[in-house]
Design brief:
6 strands; 4 helices
């Protein structure tokens, strides 16, 4: 990767990577269109582009045109576009996926830690029943 991209989280809890000024449209793409459930679609499109075929993906606010060498990100709401190397785009998407997985794990650990702390303080049957409910809700039991 040519740059480092600091990880940010919106007030709404959505992860994105901070981009240099010339690629800020990618931030909107990560916040609005990209997510942990559809990231593989984008990675497959990148892989397919390596065989010479133009790949296009349209989201809520962005349209991507991916070729073997270049990726164009067009923000339909702002009527602006930016271009970057497709391999760099792939690395950004992979980093996004990694950081999202780490964030999900971190949130899960915090929830479990919270339940653990409650369990240490539990003394009544209603406390234990509430803990059991919390464990079931978080699919721990």
């Amino acid at each position: 990767m040519n740059h480092t991209y600091p990880v940010r989280v919106t007030d709404g809890g959505v992860l994105y990577l901070r981009m240099p000024e010339e690629l800020t449209l990618l931030e909107d793409f990560m916040i609005i269109d990209l997510n942990i459930m559809n990231v593989l679609e984008y990675l497959y499109k990148i892989e397919d582009s390596q065989h010479g075929a133009l790949q296009q993906v349209t989201g809520n606010t962005t349209a991507l045109s991916i070729t073997k060498d270049k990726t164009v990100v067009y923000n339909t709401a702002l009527d602006q576009e930016c271009t970057l190397d497709t391999q760099e785009f792939k690395e950004i998407i992979k980093l996004y996926l990694k950081e999202n997985i780490l964030l999900l794990i971190e949130r899960d650990i915090k929830k479990k830690q919270n339940i653990y702390e409650k369990a240490k303080l539990a003394t009544s049957i209603s406390d234990f029943l509430k803990l059991r409910e919390d464990l079931q809700q978080d699919k721990i039991i």
